[in-house]
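Weekend entry, working from home. Most of the wet-lab plans are on hold until the incubator is repaired, so I used the time to fold the two sequences that have been sitting in the queue since the last round of cloning. Logging both here for the record. First:
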Amino acid sequence: MHAVEWVILAVVIAGIVIALFGWDRYRGSRKSVSNGDASQPTDEVFIDPETGQRMRVWYDPGTGKRDYRPE
């Protein structure tokens, strides 16, 4: 086998290993304590252009979900 063929073989094997045991295999193991709703208010506040209300951004660090609620 030539050097190029060895490199291709190594890349294919690495791809198979990553697909089977992927880097994000344990990503779903961090469960949010909440029920999936954004649970922590942040300091971010903005004016909703449709209603003119002040809205606060709520964030759930476990799921990364952001929600916007009237202040």
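Second, folded right after the first finished:
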Amino acid sequence: MHAFHASPQRFMLRFLFLLSFLALGGCASLSAADQQSIAGKTYVITGASSGFGRGVALRLAGMKANVVLAARRTEVLNEVAAQAQAAGGTALVVTTDVANAQDVRKLADAALQRFGRIDVWINNAAVGAIGSFDTIPVEDHARVVDVNLKGVIYGSHVALQQFRKQRAGVLINVGSVESEVPLAYHASYSATKAAVLSLGRALNEELRLAGLRGPIEVATVMPWATDTPFFDHAANYTGRTARMPMMDPPEKVVDYIVHTSLYPSEEVPTGWKARGAVWSHHIAPDLTERISANVVHKSQMESAPPTLAPTSGSVQQPMREGTGVDGGVRARMEREDAARKGQ
């Protein structure tokens, strides 16, 4: 136990590396034929102003897809649309708060009016609140549920209605490793991501019973902690800068999402760390949760430098900051850790 507490991140890394060999690996690369098959398809992408959503939109546009861009930040979406069209795609901007069912209905209607069909719907928009559960205002917890769960339900509802009419379509819900492994200081976020995973499983069974499984598929993509603007956008009541150890680059998850749109499977952990965590939780749930909690406590509550004040981030209102695919969190953490060691 002493060795573990001395370096919980290293212990976790080795633990997941070993367990990853038990999991089935997945390849997220696309062939030239795959890329050609994306041309002309219509993708609806929520949370398209930054992070995975922006990355996926630009990747698909480079393959000449139609991308329907949804988020709260209209000006940023217009920037993404210009980049998408310069890359060879066709873009439509629809300002959307996914927590509003009418907004989501209007998003679907706009996509259909412009392109006639929806081939893939990607529920990617999400917000988070970091801190001890009872120190986070209940209004922020409620908004996390509204965006991460209700928003996915609203998007899934309109997408599946259209897919049933078309008799084809792929619904991708972006979950998280936290869909499987609940994480300390992320309580309401973990709860919503677990619900997203259960939703996808239930929907696939309904499709099977209706004889529609195959032409219509629901996939839950489950990323490991990834360096996107999410951490700077999250509500933060820890008194410290938001961070997470062993982050993946966002391009990895973008590749998995695009690949899943062509080759959907029910659950898609993105890479060996994500697969290792999922399998670890299947084998030893209590141990996995304890190790994960210790790692995040060390990184977030002990190693992160203090901040000036709590913030609700972009949970209640969108922020001007954080419009890229990469969030720069890894670089910031390196600077913070170097400064701490130099003291």
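Plan for Monday: verify the second prediction. Residues 3 and 306 are 27 Å apart (CA to CA).
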